[in-house]
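Bench notes, bay 3.
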Amino acid sequence: MDTNTNDFEQAKARLRDEFPGWSIILTRDTGRWWATCGPLPRGDVTGVSDVDADTAGDLAVKLRAVPRKTPDRLGEAIVAARRRDLLRGAGGT
């Protein structure tokens, strides 16, 4: 592994540590950084599931701006969505 590759891997590790739940990708052909997450909770049609940037630093800035539910709040949101589906007769699973 050369120095540049090691630097990229370290940057990816830092991003993964700061943004758990996001997959961090550096495309080799374009050098573009991506973060993806998902699936989004049922009914979340306005949520952000992918972000891209030219650098790891820019990606971190963009990810910090993405509103995210904490894991415990996310679980509550999923349960609430399923209850709504059941009340509507959708039989959410």
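Next record in the batch:
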Amino acid sequence: MEFHVEQTIHAAPADVAQSMFDPDLEDRWTGGKAEKLTPEPIGVGARVRTAACSDCAAPSSQKSPSSSQSAG
């Protein structure tokens, strides 16, 4: 699955990254949900499982019900 979204955010990159990579805030960025698969703190090597949003733009034949990501 491939996504491309571009948005100008008037904030420090570190502040944006702190919010963007927080699995508890996944729904704010993608409309989906994230489940933590490794204990906190989230960092290099942390794993989360994300569930795709139901309103994503990809045709239904290309949608995936979930995927796994690794931080780092």
